């Protein structure tokens, strides 16, 4: 029962991780530049994401521009696009597999098949967490290095946006969920190796029965 509750808790964490991963991939605020200037009325906020760049004005107007050209983008943005999409796909596969493998569901067949499914789903969650953690770390490193660069003007410097923090937290949720699923299945398999199922043999009974038959033949 405790293992089933732990798996359910890991599944909830994985759900939060999947939704956060998708949101971080689509949000345009991976890096933010707030340029207030001399007049608060003309203040604008520039945001850059993986797929589009948006500009918010203090008057409430905003405009977004899609990034159509892939080859013109920096390497870290191209890598972030690829790995974040891969993280979303792996986490979605993990949700589908663990749904059939959890103890609280009636899918997935016998206990061994459900255990293998949970382990496979946990591996998917771990790979998804790593795939989401790498681009967010690389993207944050690029933002910080540009921010500390003295030759770059202040108006062109950015800070990490909400999408980066969402990606970090989502990757952490996926990693924790994957470790819990893999650990629960590993403990079950280890217990099966240490305590194999009892097999009942009755050699003495068989010998006595055979001896009885032999005595009758001689009578």
From TrEMBL:
GO cellular component: bicellular tight junction; plasma membrane
Cross-referenced Gene3D superfamilies: 1.20.140.150
Coiled-coil annotated spans: none
Membrane-crossing segments per the record: 75-97, 117-139, 163-186
Keywords for the protein's UniProt record, in alphabetical order: Cell junction, Cell membrane, Membrane, Signal, Tight junction, Transmembrane, Transmembrane helix
Family annotation (PROSITE patterns): CLAUDIN
Short name of one Pfam family: PMP22_Claudin
GO MF term set: structural molecule activity
Compartments, as annotated in UniProt: Cell junction, Tight junction; Cell membrane
Protein family per UniProt: Belongs to the claudin family.
Function: Claudins function as major constituents of the tight junction complexes that regulate the permeability of epithelia.
UniProt protein name: Claudin
Gene name per UniProt: Cldn20
């Amino acid at each position: 029962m405790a293992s089933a509750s732990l798996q359910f808790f890991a599944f909830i964490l994985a759900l939060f991780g999947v939704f956060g991963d998708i949101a971080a991939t689509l949000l345009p605020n991976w890096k933010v530049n707030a340029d207030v200037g001399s007049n608060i009325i003309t203040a604008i906020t520039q945001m850059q994401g993986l797929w589009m760049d948006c500009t918010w004005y203090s008057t409430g107007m905003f405009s977004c521009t899609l990034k159509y050209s892939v080859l013109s983008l920096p390497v870290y943005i191209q890598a972030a696009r690829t790995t974040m999409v891969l993280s979303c796909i792996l986490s979605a596969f993990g949700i589908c597999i663990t749904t059939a493998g959890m103890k609280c569901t009636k899918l997935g067949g016998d206990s061994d098949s459900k255990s293998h499914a949970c382990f496979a789903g946990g591996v998917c969650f771990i790979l998804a967490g790593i795939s989401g953690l790498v681009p967010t770390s690389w993207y944050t490193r690029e933002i910080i290095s540009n921010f500390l660069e003295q030759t770059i003007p202040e108006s062109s410097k950015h800070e990490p946006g909400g999408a980066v923090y969402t990606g970090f937290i989502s990757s952490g949720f996926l990693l924790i969920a994957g470790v819990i699923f893999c650990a629960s299945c590993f403990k079950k398999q280890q217990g099966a190796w240490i305590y194999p199922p009892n097999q009942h043999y009755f050699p003495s009974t068989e010998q006595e029965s055979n001896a009885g038959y032999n005595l009758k033949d001689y009578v």
